[in-house]
Design a protein that fits this description.
The protein has helices at residues 2-50, 55-68, 71-84, 89-100. By secondary structure, the chain is mainly alpha-helical. It has a domain at 33-100: Alpha Horseshoe (Serine Threonine Protein Phosphatase 5, Tetratricopeptide repeat).
């Protein structure tokens, strides 16, 4: 009976340890993802300095900002993109989503 109790405790610790390891990996993945997004934002901004009217790049920048949680910047990028790509459905959907989150005006 004592051995059964000890093995249950050991298994419990193993499961807890495994869960912590998975959580740490998940956190590392998210952190790596944030750094990748920041790098992509910088690359897109650098590109846009030479190509400020590239609607696709502006739309991409808006999506990257949105993914990073930088909603004001996302709205600004999408506004610029909408000037270059009027009627673009993806930009319209992004505005709808940002408005639903309270980050874009209805104008």
């Amino acid at each position: 009976m004592l051995y059964a109790s000890i093995s249950i405790v050991v298994i419990g610790f193993a499961v807890i340890s495994l869960l912590f390891q998975q959580n740490e990996l998940s956190t590392l993945d998210k952190t790596r993802s944030i750094f990748e997004i920041q790098e992509q934002i910088q690359e897109t901004i650098t590109y846009l300095k030479s190509n400020p009217k590239d609607g696709r790049a502006l739309k991409s920048l808006g999506a990257l900002y949105k993914e990073a949680g930088l909603y004001k910047e996302a709205v600004s990028a999408y506004i610029s993109a909408s000037r270059e790509l009027p009627g673009d459905r993806e930009i319209q959907r992004a505005f709808i989503d940002l408005r639903a989150r309270g980050h874009a005006s209805s104008n």
